[in-house]
Sequence to fold (367 residues):
Amino acid sequence: MRITAAVVHGTDRSFSLEEVDIEEPRAHEVLVRIVATGMCHTDLVVRDGGRSSGLPAVLGHEGAGVVEHVGDGVTNVQPGDHVVLTFASCGRCSNCLRGKGSYCLDLMAHNFTGARPDGTSPLSQDGNVICGVFFSQSSFATYALATEGNVVKVPTDLPLELLGPLGCGIQTGAGAVINALQPSPGSSLAIFGAGSIGMSALLAAKIVGCTTIIAVDINNDRLRLAIELGATHTINSKRVDPVEAIRQATCSMGVNYSLEATGIPHVFRQAVDCLAVLGTCGVVGVAPVGAEVSLDIFSVLLGRFVRGIVQGDSVPNLFIPALLKLYRQGRFPFDRLVSYYDFDEINKAAMDSEMGITIKPVLRMPV
Ligand SMILES: [Zn+2]
Ligand SMILES: [Zn+2]
Fold:
């Protein structure tokens, strides 16, 4: 079948809308007509050659759409179902069997190689292979092939065009708080980086009852939105030392929890330095390959924890429906983070995202 996809050739920092051929679903695969897809920082890192996927490639990993066809053996969805596409995992390794699919021992192979585990890709152009299995979806396209393991069925009465970001950025931020850090009511949390992950974490912190929620960023517009969404304090770290400001806001104690959502080494250090004794820093920011950070060993010795978190420790088929129930109740207004773009505005969406104008771009496919 002929589809339109945003192809990355790797020669410049851009996406090119082109006609591409997509295979029919093989066994355990699901063909989805994409209605809209979020754009995530990881798409741009890979576009710029930061992490592997071969080239040319179709990226995109926050797809939402309608099931068109299913391959043999698929029983969890059927044509017509509304679905959100999320990350893929093998389902068989020791971590997957423990319900920790985002730490799948084969995570890179299922999400970043651009090919199925057997080395094939469902996308081609004039007979030439296009890498088309990014996060087992490559959703910057009018149709995408996912697998039964990375589709999440969602109710048909919710606006499908909004839901794609739940499959990565939103579940990463909300899950980092609700599933991973699990702050107790009345505790304090500082969030470094008020992008889509940080803001989702903020919404989650409010849900679980954190009473001190501090947003740290260098963009005043984002800090203003953070206040509207429930932050109790905001800190512009270009103007003041955030570690000092956090100590002042917490009677010199430091915060019980922090979330590092920037991937910037010196910010990582601040996110650890602002912790109270026995505090935990969750790390979700994607840093350049090989980036390192230094920590004060004595400070860490005093019972402080630092832990990495992938995809918010989410089991997507459990967590995304839970977030949607909270959204329906008005307690998780993640729609406030989204700005819509037409598919052919994909390069503008990327630029706006990189400039901090847009928190979560969502590309709408032509009807
Ligand atoms: Zn696995
Ligand atoms: Zn992502």
The domain at 2-167+333-364 is CATH 3.90.180.10 (Quinone Oxidoreductase; Chain A, domain 1).
